[in-house]
Amino acid sequence: MLQEILNDVGIAVFAASGALLGVRKDFDLWGIVTVGALTGVGGGILRDVMLGITPPSSIENWLPIVIAAATSVVVFFFHPAFAQLRRSVLLFDAVGMGVFATSGAAIAVDHQVSAFAATLVGLLTAVGGGILRDVLANEIPLLLQPADLYAVPALLGAAVVALGGGQTSVPIWIWLVAGTIVATGLRVLGLIFGWRLPTAPAGVRRRRREA
């Protein structure tokens, strides 16, 4: 039950991030709802396609689409308030990312794939919606930009579930909680302390541009 609630919160937060980008790009209502909905459920659809679940649960079940679309409509009308709640949105986004990464890995484990595959499925569940959002808005995907830690926490959280849930007799829900704490905690610490992965030295980048 708790996982379902957190999953719905994650869908809403991801949808809000997509809708806010649509507002910034001056999309109309349909465009904002489309980007928001795909951001909210895109990761789950990608997960199900990779695992051969057809039709994807986000399409088979009406609730995820409704949550994402309704959130996008709210953002359309009240986007200035969302801009002022940026810190709260980032916190919920961190929780949603952790839940999506670990739940994606857990579903992959249930389908008896390898731990490596389950980890990648969890990662793509967490970042898939954001990639769709950025591609639709003609942006360089945030995943590829030198931004705050995001993919790495998702990868580690998914790995906790894939390795623990698939290789031990400990109940899967314990690994779900542990993986979500790892992913969300690392993401929040990265936001607080400004942690980033290293980029290429300036001299190397300059020589490549001149080549």
Automatic annotation (TrEMBL):
Q: Work out whether the entry's keyword set contains Signal.
A: no
Q: Does the keyword Cell membrane apply?
A: yes
Q: What is its main location?
A: membrane
The annotated topology with respect to the bilayer is:
Multi-pass membrane protein
What are the protein's UniProt keywords? Answer: Cell membrane, Membrane, Transmembrane, Transmembrane helix
Q: Name one GO cellular component term.
A: plasma membrane
Per UniProt, residues of the Glycine transporter domain are 5-79, 91-163
**Localization (cell):** Cell membrane
Superkingdom: Bacteria
Transmembrane segments annotated in the record for this chain: 6-23, 30-50, 62-82, 89-109, 115-136, 148-166, 172-197
- Classification via InterPro entries: Gly_transporter
Family in the record? Belongs to the UPF0126 family.
Record's protein name: Trimeric intracellular cation channel family protein
